[in-house]
Write a structure and sequence with these properties.
The chain is an alpha+beta fold. The chain has 3 domains: 124 residues, Jelly Rolls, CATH 2.60.120.10; 57 residues, no CATH class; 59 residues, Homeodomain-like (Arc Repressor Mutant, subunit A, Orthogonal Bundle), CATH 1.10.10.60. The chain is 44% helix and 20% strand. It is built from 11 helices and 10 strands. The strands form 2 sheets. A 6-stranded antiparallel β-sheet has the order 1-2-9-4-7-10. A hairpin with a 2-residue loop joins strand 1 and strand 2. The longest helix is centred in the middle third of the chain and has 20 residues. Keywords: DNA-binding, Transcription, Transcription regulation. This is AraC-like DNA-binding protein. It comes from Nonomuraea muscovyensis. GO terms for molecular function: DNA-binding transcription factor activity; sequence-specific DNA binding.
């Protein structure tokens, strides 16, 4: 029996934890893939048959299925647990290109791709799908596509976005400045990484890399820095409704707000409110221990 639990989703992609309890050596009935799907094994192993080729999927060998591809599975070693990432046709074209088809489906999971997989799952647990999970997805797909296609993730966007980009500078510095402006003014397209990249006329991958190159921090970290600053403004004015504050600033929930402020500023929101409203205080009042040097995080 196979079961899937949705653990994360963003514009054009979904992340499922798939558990299979089957135990059989015979091939299953044919299944037809309906989307581009990257499957990485977390525990166990099983066999996959596609395009007449059989392969053993385990934590060191993942696979990429494409729409319309016929697959069959066998589980001679018992159950397994996998991560399945589904991409819409539009997102696949945005990230890989119009005419890209993988040269093969199986791909080797080296230590770097394994780390990218684990960080992707950690990003899903963090609850920031529009930026944190999307950036982790780019890192994961970059490593995967490098193996099974002739090119990495796309550097340029297409369609109207590309024509818009042609009318303005797309140097990394210019991309970062334009993105910072959109985030600062709360442009509606700045609500997630993919729509922000479309607004700027660049690929999501290029936008993500530009922040790391120019500022030394990820786009996710920068956006959270802006939100933390806004949270501190309100805490300084005595804000006590943390759930309301989290909702107003676009955090998944109050716990997400607390984790982010603590990671960036070193204290919980409650402790920060005390520090900012009682300048004579030497330290936080019941706000928890320090999380580390301010500015040391990159989340």
């Amino acid at each position: 029996m196979r079961s899937a639990v949705r653990v994360g989703a963003g514009p054009g992609f979904a992340l499922d934890a798939v558990t299979c309890d089957d135990d059989h050596r015979r091939w299953s009935p044919v299944e037809t893939s309906s989307a581009h799907r990257l499957v990485l094994v977390r525990r166990g192993r099983f066999r996959r048959l596609a395009d007449g080729r059989s392969s053993l999927a385990d934590p060191t060998l993942a696979y990429l299925s494409t729409p319309g591809e016929e697959e069959r599975f066998a589980h001679p070693a018992g159950g397994d647990v996998c991560t399945s990432v589904s991409l819409s046709a539009g997102l696949w074209r945005t990230l890989a290109g119009e005419d890209v088809r993988p040269s093969r489906s199986a791909l080797y999971v080296d230590a770097r791709l394994d780390v990218a997989h684990r960080r992707f799952l950690a990003a899903a647990r963090a609850g920031d799908a529009p930026f944190g999970l999307a950036e982790a997805l780019l890192s994961l797909l970059s490593g995967a596509l490098r193996q099974v296609t002739d090119r990495p993730l796309r550097e340029a966007a297409g369609g109207e976005a590309a024509r818009g980009a042609a009318r303005r500078s797309t140097s990394p510095a210019a991309i970062v400045d334009a993105a910072r402006e959109a985030i600062a003014c709360d442009h509606e397209a700045a609500g997630d990484l993919l729509s922000l990249a479309e607004l700027l006329g660049v690929s999501p991958y290029r936008l993500s890399r530009a922040f790391t190159r120019e500022l030394g921090v990820s786009l996710t970290h920068y956006r959270n820095r802006v939100r933390v600053g806004r949270a501190l403004d309100r805490l300084e004015r005595g804000e006590r409704g943390l759930a309301r504050l989290a909702a107003d600033l676009g955090f998944a929930d109050q716990a997400h707000l607390t984790r982010t402020i603590r990671r960036h500023a070193g204290h919980t929101p409650t402790a920060m409110r005390h520090l900012l409203t009682h300048p004579e205080a030497d330290g936080p009042a019941g706000g928890g221990r320090r999380a580390g040097p301010v500015g040391s995080a990159r989340a």
